[in-house]
Amino acid sequence: MIAHLAPNTSWTLDPLQIVPTLVAAALYARRVLTLRDRGTPVPGWRVALFATGILTLLVAFVSPVHALGERMFSFHMLQHVLIGDLAPLALLAGLTGPILRPALRWLHRLSFLANPLVALPIWAVNLILWHLPFLFDAAVRHDAVHALEHFCFFTGGVIMWMPVLETLPAPEWFGTGAKLGYIAVVRVVETILGNVFFWSGSVFYVVYAHQNRLFGLSALADQGMAGAVMMIEGSIVTLVALAWLFLRMASEGELRQQLLERGLDPRTVRRAVRYGRAEELSRSR
Description:
Radius of gyration: 21 Å
Strand order of the largest sheet: 1-2
Number of helices: 14
Shape: globular
Distance between the termini: 60 Å
Number of domains: 1
Number of strands: 2
Strand content: under 5%
């Protein structure tokens, strides 16, 4: 059950969503401290990114965004891009091999999810299914379904970003160039769905059609704003991701050329550059 912290505020407390988030934060902090004590500290920027992901989830679950999302589709969409896109991206970027080492035996069974040909369909089907009217309306009306929806969006976001960040190793063919195409396809899917909401002449979700209007917006205008939120957020993240990948591709090409000129095995060079071990390979030779 969702408990409102005070009748005159929009801050909410939903243990089904908040407790797992805080547990994940505590486990991460414990592992970071353990690694520091062993003399292998986690880079500060990694910790900052993971903390950003946790904060993003808490904003989505606890702040007025959650309460407003039950009355306006545009805020519900904002909540979903926080949970299903930005938070997974930040959390995965905050992980490293040493942090994940205690769970690698279990995570190895999920390595198939790092294949983009698996990850992309799972993410796309998950995104589309939860925007079907009967599921979306049920999520707004029922706390348990709402929590399940958020879990699926978050899990889908993790699966979608996993091949890009290679939290688990992606297939050998899925290099930086292929990742550029993958990100483009992801955003095409989101853009199509966002345009459906933006240009539709009818309201899709009954649960919002009969709400008391906020800010003077009609249900149709609210739906259009939801589509705009999805497309704007997707465009910003895409530009940042593509810029990062282009810069990475350029630096990788230079590193590969330097190592190949030293007569090193091409396949070994490709793997070392891809996983940030070029300096280690250079020293070992």
